[in-house]
Amino acid sequence: MTLSTTVFIVRHGERMDRLMKFWRDPRGRSDPPLSPKGHEQALQTGQYLAQQIDANARVILYTSPFQRCVETATGIAHGLVQEPILKLDLGLGEWQSDHVNPEDEVGADDIVVRQEAAMLSFQHEQLARQQAAAFAAKQRPPFQVDYAYRSHTSQLIYPEDYTQVVDRFENVGKRALEEQDPDTVLIFCTHAVGVNMLLDTFRGQLTRPVETGYCCVASVQRKGDSGHWIVDQQPSIAHLTQSPPSMPPAALGNLAPLCGS
Length: 261
Description:
This protein has helices at residues 16-19, 36-52, 67-79, 110-113, 116-136, 162-179, 192-203, 249-255; strands at residues 6-11, 58-63, 85-88, 144-145, 184-190, 217-223, 228-236. By secondary structure, it is of the alpha/beta class. Strands 4-3-2-5-1-6-7 form a seven-stranded mixed beta sheet, with helices on both faces.
């Protein structure tokens, strides 16, 4: 078994329902897209990661299938120099708590839980449309999608206790490491709770959660052949402190189908 040696963990960008408090998903689900600022944050995060990753590296980008994470992942892909392979994994999804969710004032609802298959199908369809649009414009899509990839998590549990969510994220992290070669750079795009869960997976112990801002980036490195992981960077939004760049019109056009408009 070989293990990847570089891993980045990213929280999604700003949610539309944080910009518009009374925003409601027209599909009747609690699955908000990114706000315009969130799209800018995702693009800038990709540009930052491009500077941290060798231009010739193979990059695998695992993302939660929730819309805000898929949009963040595609925004990151637009900012990267590398052409990542996107894999949607339900195991990276939001914590299905019956208490008030850290990201959702009304808490997680079982509407989303009952529609995992529809969620994955919808996001795959939107990604395929983005790729087709790029080919139609005689452009190379900024990412590939592994449509054959299947998450080991086939269904989210509601309500989900803390131990269950810890196990879910740990399974995703370990599987991703075992399936990739050591020269592959992994990027995980997930939710606030997920950033802390994945960091604890690599540490091998539960720790007190730390603050995770929108599009924060954390990184871990595997040292030597011992399999021991070191947290190189705690979740940080330092790369977002400068005024974010304007997203190219072409990129905005490619992302538009995911905005629910």
